[in-house]
Design brief:
The longest helix is centred in the middle third of the chain and has 17 residues, at 180-196. Strands 6-7-8-3-9-10-13-12 form an eight-stranded mixed sheet, sandwiched between helices. Strands 2-1-4-5 form a four-stranded antiparallel sheet. It has a two-stranded antiparallel ribbon with strand order 11-14. Helix 6 (180-196) links the parallel strand 7 (168-172) and strand 8. Helices cover 28% and strands 26% of the residues. Helix 3 (103-114) packs across helix 4 (120-133). It is of the alpha/beta class and 321 residues long. It has helices at 46-53, 76-85, 103-114, 120-133, 150-162, 180-196, 208-214, 241-248; strands spanning 2-15, 18-31, 35-39, 61-66, 69-70, 86-89, 168-172, 200-205, 217-222, 225-231, 292-294, 297-300, 303-305, 315-318. The structure holds adenosine-5'-diphosphate and magnesium ion.
Length: 321
């Protein structure tokens, strides 16, 4: 069952005379119990898309559906259910922890709002339970955020997101900016959580290795658009040249980077090239890719690709956006 879905989402930012096309026509659905990875280079629109999906920002066009019903800002009941069921963890997790509150207060707060039927004793039990689940100690609940390392602060933010048993958790760069060993521990924790919890996850990251490790399904974003959507097993042999290049750019187990297929810079979101947005960097670019835009087209169950090399006939037409 689809819990959260964006259809035709567009978000452009005005910056002087420039229009930054951060998210430029995205359809994306997150299902119950799945772990969907959203990958792409820095600046490709991942965080903006996440804010749109969370309703933190309004799209210029497109709609949001929650449990099959269109999101309507005026429907208080729907908004409350959304708040109960959908939680988010941002990269700046540490900054989102109130420095004046103990860990217990921080984690118990969503319970007070979302599970008012719990008395203080039950809340304490839940806080202790989630701390253990996060690999922390019961005693940690009496301490303050600044007493913890970055990785632990990220766990506290995760604990707060998970304590009220959400249906969906959206994580923006949940592991980036941490030491590799801390990242590995956090990834293992997330993997355990994915298996032990009924929750579905959306992991937003530029780290394809993390996605391979954690996810059941992957969406690849380039220049504000999804260019490939595939089952995680498909990452063995992705079809879009950009996804292939991302994979090849990943450091191998032996420490050396594989063939550097990905050359050039990510596109300027205020001046995308015509045709396929990836064509200036594409190693297998064809003439038509300069002018025509490939459409995201199904190639197998759960697998869609926007590339003329893969599905030659599927364009949105010359010059058309
Ligand atoms: N509030 C904003 N105002 C102006 N430009 C923005 C804003 N938020 C994001 N952008 C721009 O939109 C593009 C996509 O950004 P973002 O969604 O943060 O990408 P990612 O998370 O993939 O790195 C970038 O060019 C970024 O500079
Ligand atoms: Mg981001």
């Amino acid at each position: 069952m689809i819990i959260l879905e964006g259809r035709g989402l567009v978000r452009h930012y005005r910056q002087g005379s420039r229009s930054i096309r951060a998210v430029d026509g995205v359809d994306l659905a997150v299902r119950e119990h799945e772990a969907l990875g959203l990958v792409g280079e820095s600046g490709s629109g991942k965080s903006t898309l996440l804010r749109l999906l969370l309703g933190l920002e309004r799209p210029d066009s497109g709609e949001l559906y929650f449990r099959g019903r269109i999101m309507n800002g005026r429907d208080g009941k729907q908004r409350n259910q959304f708040r109960r069921e959908v939680q988010a963890v941002f990269q700046e997790a540490a900054a989102s922890l109130n420095p004046r509150l103990t860990v217990k207060k921080i984690i118990a707060e969503p319970l007070q709002n979302l599970k008012p039927e719990f008395d203080s004793r039950r809340r304490l039990e839940e806080v202790n339970r989630i701390l253990l689940e996060m690999g922390m100690q019961h005693g940690d609940r009496r301490r303050y955020p600044h007493e913890f390392s970055g990785g632990q602060q990220r766990r506290i933010a995760l604990a707060r997101a998970l304590v009220a048993d959400p249906v969906l958790v959206l994580c923006d760069e949940a592991t980036s900016g941490l030491d590799l060993s801390v990242q590995a521990r956090l990834l293992n924790l997330l993997l355990d959580l994915r298996e032990s919890r009924r929750a579905g996850f959306l992991f937003v990251t530029h780290d394809l290795a993390a996605v391979r490790y954690l996810c059941t399904r992957v969406a690849v974003i380039y220049g504000g658009q999804i260019i490939e959507e595939l089952p995680a097993a498909g990452l063995q042999e992705p079809l879009h040249p950009y996804t292939q290049a991302l994979l090849a750019a990943e450091p191998s187990l032996f420490g050396a980077a594989a063939a550097p297929l990905l050359t050039g810079e990510p596109p300027d979101p205020a001046a995308f090239p015509p045709g396929c947005r990836f064509h200036p960097r594409c190693p297998v670019m064809m003439e038509r890719c300069r002018e025509e835009k490939p459409r995201l087209t199904g190639v197998a169950p759960g697998w869609r690709v926007a590339c003329f090399r893969v599905n030659g006939s599927c364009s949105t037409g010359k010059g058309q956006e």
